[in-house]
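FW: tagging you since you asked about this chain on Friday. Here's the raw sequence from the shared folder, copied in full. Didn't touch anything.
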Amino acid sequence: MASQPEKAKATDAAATPPLAAGQIEIWKKIVDVQQHFNDLELRIRNFALIVSGAFLGLGGYAIKDGGVIQFMGLEVSVAGLVVISAVIPLISFYFMDRLWYHRLLEGSVAAGIKAEEALRKLGYEVHLGSQISEKSPFTVWWTNYQVHSRGKMDFFYLLLVLTLLVLGSGLAFGIHPRSSQIVQPSMATTDNGNTSEVTAPAPNKESGDAVEKPVANPDTPEMVKPKSE
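HL: got it, structure written out here
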């Protein structure tokens, strides 16, 4: 014996006209395609965020190295160049998202709206595609300008690119190489009481490292400089 859900399904199939049943299946398939393209676009944006974060991490690691290159007479930090180079994969992600899959998604939405119009003519009230298209844009209150899905996408990638450019430029021209340590001579006392000249590194002005001063040996007589007459 057939179960109760199977009987209900068979009853609905028998009650639905063949034309309406076929149109409903077409609409369902169109909705599946819309979900597929929407999921692909979300994955692309997720990858764009991951790649941007990876380049920021590489830039932070490059700061520790302190590498600097000469470009047109200017000292440019490698860390800033690494961060700025993240813009290149972002452009490729934008091309794939905005000019590839989003156009396919718009086509599937348009096809879904037509399928819903056909279903409404058959007596089925279906407004999914039209309601999504109506509720998707928002209005900027001080300009009354409506921002649709394309504008949202452009703002998303533009914000990422501007962040990378500003941060990368600040790192590129704001980080300077550490000054080389200059060796300065100093006097030290040996075990046999003689004084000898040794070298000690000069203080680093940028890091503020202090230089250890030689400690005078109390057993060694101090050398007094004769006063000039």
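FW: The CA atoms of residues 49 and 150 lie 18 Å apart.
HL: agreed, and The first strand starts at residue 68 and ends at 71.
FW: great, closing this out.
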